[in-house]
Write a structure and sequence with these properties.
Elements (H helix, E strand, L loop, with lengths): L2 H21 L13 E2 L8 H18 L6 H10 L2 E2 L5 E2 L2 H9 L6 E2 L8 E2 L4 E6 L5 E4 L4 E4 L2 H12 L6 E3 L10 H13 L5 E4 L7 H12 L2 H6 L3 E5 L10 H12 L4 E5 L11 H22 L5 E5 L3 E3 L4 E3 L3 H17 L4 E3 L10 H16 L4 E3 L4 E2 L4 E2 L1 H19 L5 H4 L1 H8 L10 H6 L15 H6 L5 H13 L9 H10 L7
Parallel strand pairs: 6-9, 6-17, 7-19, 9-10, 10-11, 11-12, 12-13, 16-17
Antiparallel strand pairs: 1-6, 2-3, 4-5, 7-8, 14-15, 18-19
Helix pairs in contact: 2-10, 3-10, 4-10, 5-6, 6-7, 10-11, 11-12, 12-13, 13-18
Length: 515
């Protein structure tokens, strides 16, 4: 037979082998990607530009300062060395900022409830997860929006539990079917923690709600001592109202959370052109200044408390005044902030993966991929809002969350980068194939041995030929995601609480999810 006659059989055999390997569960060492891959290869800012942003942020803190701190914060920060002006603004001397940065926690671990998916935030380790406060659930099949519910939130947590590339579950939706704010905050914790063992992030509407939330978390953990040893929920805290003002109530929440042993995400979310400067560099300067103020606050109250430097500046469509999370400018904002986190060697988080598109369509795909890839390449520790978010954070979509597993998988492969070793340079393989070999690499030992650990294969993305696509009845991506969603939700959540614990929680608190 000629080489041309034998090639189709070789290709068919290779395809069968690849399918057989992919069908088998992969060991951790064989996976091409995993949470916590080290990024940081993308450097949009030079060393000189990083220093200019740093000094501009210090100037802003020293000369402009922040307004509206609670009295407890004023007392604490003035005792530490801040200066309260006649205009009511707290100004931060450079030396104070540097002193507090010196004692900041640079080895933060965000714990999971079962110990199987802890998040190590040292260095440039990258983790993708959910976040946001969407008020709508996107019905992808019906192409419609409706109010999000506690059941929707619980279902999102259950789905995240089954997605390897989603590393944490910060609340992506508001429970709009719960009118009482305290009940909403408590049920948010219940819905998320009973849906996944992964680390959970949440917010509190009022400082007085922290104490009952801690009581609930102690019950889930099995006691306050166990909670404090491994706090598996963190507080997402919008401690500032940009530009350069403290959010008084949120600061009081933050103080209560710190005393209770809960990690905090210091979140500054200015909108470039509205509540932050319109320039990318200016928006980063303000976000950095505000988060530096937050780090001083936290490390004055409790030196070394686990805190995430959450610079989250958002983009704005200056033609309409509408927020835009799916733009190239948003990707630059996030990547620049990630580089500043590395400059300070602080655990950091920012927003990426947001779609302005209303549905999981082509627009959503390019919007989500652009910022997710740049965030990972920049070494962002916590990539928030990376899957499922639509309509500039107004809508959350379960199907889009599932599709995000594939999208983030490809982004993570980019983060992993290119390994250059004697083996991967493959000179011996080139010689073997070209000098008397088959003339192709389809069946070589190296190709087969590395097909899993070098390549990421989509779970739902379609790579078939047009002929195969037709033979498979032209599968629809959204329909495939819906099928997987229904399959996940048909099973009981592994993270559900033991019956005695659940009964005790329901006896103490009004839980809106059915037992």
């Amino acid at each position: 037979m000629t080489q041309a006659q034998t090639r189709p059989a070789a290709r068919a055999g290779g395809r069968a082998a690849r399918r057989a390997v992919r069908a088998a569960p992969l060991s951790a060492e064989m996976r091409a990607i995993h949470p916590g891959l080290e990024g940081g290869r993308l450097n949009l800012l030079s060393d000189a530009e990083l220093l200019r942003i740093h000094h501009a942020a210090l100037d802003a803190l020293e000369q402009i300062g922040l307004a509206d701190a609670p009295q407890s914060g004023i007392d604490l920060l003035c005792q530490a060395g801040c200066q309260l002006g006649d205009d009511g603004r707290l100004r931060f001397p450079r030396a104070l900022v540097e002193d507090k940065l010196a004692v900041a926690n640079r080895a933060v671990t965000l714990f999971s409830r079962d110990g199987q998916s802890d998040l190590d935030l040292r260095g440039t380790r990258v983790h993708y997860g959910t976040a946001g406060a969407a008020v709508h659930l996107v019905d992808a099949q019906g192409r419609a929006y409706r109010d999000s519910t506690v059941q929707d939130l619980h279902d999102a947590a259950r789905i995240c539990a089954q997605l390897d590339n989603i590393s944490f579950v910060q609340r992506p939706m508001v429970c709009r079917d719960i009118a009482d704010n305290l009940e909403m905050d408590l049920n948010t914790i219940y819905a998320c923690c009973s849906g996944t063992f992964k680390h959970v992030g949440t917010s509190f509407t009022d400082p007085s709600y922290v104490a009952p939330a801690m009581e609930l978390l102690h019950m889930i953990a099995g006691g306050e001592d166990k909670w404090r040893a491994r706090p598996f929920v963190s507080n997402s805290n919008c401690f500032v109202v940009p530009p350069m003002k403290f959010a008084t109530e949120a600061c009081l929440v933050m103080e209560e959370c710190i005393r209770a042993g809960m990690p905090v995400l210091l979140l500054s979310a200015g909108m470039a052109g509205a509540t932050a400067p319109s320039t990318v560099a200016g928006a980063i300067v303000q976000a950095v200044a505000e988060c530096l103020a937050g780090m001083v606050y936290v490390n004055t109250l409790s030196p070394g408390h686990p805190a995430i430097f959450g610079t989250w500046p958002f983009g704005l469509d200056l033609r309409t005044g509408a927020m835009t999370g799916g733009s190239g400018e948003q990707a630059l904002l996030t990547a620049g902030c990630a580089q500043m986190h590395r400059f300070y060697d602080l655990p950091g988080g920012a927003a990426a993966g947001i779609a302005d598109s209303k549905l999981p369509d082509m627009q959503a795909g390019w919007e989500q991929m652009c910022s997710n890839v740049m965030a990972g390449l920049s070494g962002l520790n916590m990539v928030y809002e990376s899957a499922g978010m639509h309509a500039s954070l107004l809508g959350f979509c379960h199907e889009s969350l599932i599709l995000g597993e594939d999208l983030i998988g490809q982004a993570m492969r980019c983060v992993r980068g290119i390994e250059v070793t004697d083996e991967t340079l493959a000179l011996d393989q080139i010689a073997e194939v070209c000098l008397g070999g088959a003339g192709h690499y389809l069946g070589t030992g190296q190709t087969l041995s590395r097909m899993q650990k070098d390549y990421v294969y989509p779970a739902l993305g379609d790579r078939t030929s047009p002929k195969e696509w037709v033979e498979r009845e032209k599968p629809d991506l959204i329909a495939s995601a819906t099928t997987r969603k229904e399959r996940i939700l048909a099973e009981r959540a592994a993270a559900r609480f033991p019956p005695d614990v659940d009964q005790a929680i329901r006896a103490r608190f009004k839980i809106h999810l059915p037992a």
